[in-house]
Amino acid sequence: MTRVSCSATRRVGEERGERMIKGFQDLVVWQKAHKLALEIYKLTNPFPRNEQFGLTSQLRRAAYSIPSNLAEGYGRRSTKELLQFLAIANGSAEELRYFLILCRDLRYVSPQDAARLDHEVTSIVQMFAALAWSVRGRETPNNASGSLRNTEHGSRDTKPVAGARA
User: Fold this and answer.
1) What is the CB neighbour count within 10 angstroms for residue 108?
2) Which end of the chain is more exposed for a tag (fewer CB within 10 A), N or C?
3) Which residues, at least 6 apart from 148, have a Cβ–Cβ distance to it below 8 Å?
4) Helices and strands (H, E) in the chain, number of each type
5) What whole-number distance in Å separates Cα of residue 109 and Cα of residue 98?
6) Whole-model pTM?
């Protein structure tokens, strides 16, 4: 089991004060990002038809990119890759933040809805920072490269084996 002790996880089981997660769905930050993506889909339904392949599509892509990159990063074999996908998800969150400003200024979204959703984006970005900090803090001196991460399948070493073909 992967052990993560930060506010980005939900209590599934506890051992020595650490929360154990079984999959990316157990991450509170993923749950919040998924909920945000659903809200963006609902929000964009009444957008003008001429925005269907423009702003509507871009908003939705940015929104679903956040939880999907978190899920992909969680499924990768190394801490380094997890951190990379967290950074990509963070970039998508900031992209979404801009699209919300644009939608507000075009009057497709009320200032109140834009502010509420911006607050959700801020919360998710802060949770990404906390999760990244926690993951970096778990690297051991022998694992400084970030190539070994405990998962529900046990530790996985992704360093190439001498003589193995890539």
Assistant:
1) 20
2) C
3) 78, 79, 142, 155, 156, 157, 158, 159
4) 4, 5
5) 13
6) 0.73
Give the integer Cα–Cα distance in Å for 63 and 26.
19
The 10 Å Cβ neighbour count of residue 155 is 9
Structure token pair of residue 124? 């998710």
Give me 118's structure tokens: 């911006």
Yes or no: say if 64 and 45 are a contact pair by the CB < 8 Å rule.
Answer: no
| 83 within 8 A of 135, measured Cβ to Cβ | yes
Query: Which tokens sit at 159?
Result: 């360093």
Placement of tokens 């699209």 in the chain = 99
Which CATH number is 90's domain given?
Answer: 1.20.1440.60
Give me the count of residues in the chain: 166
Which pairing describes strands 14-15 and 154-157: parallel, antiparallel, or unpaired? unpaired
Domain containing residue 76: 24-139
C-alpha–C-alpha distance, residues 123 and 156, integer Å: 31
Counted domains in the chain: 1
Per-residue pLDDT of 136-151, as tens digits, reads 887 655 554 544 444 4
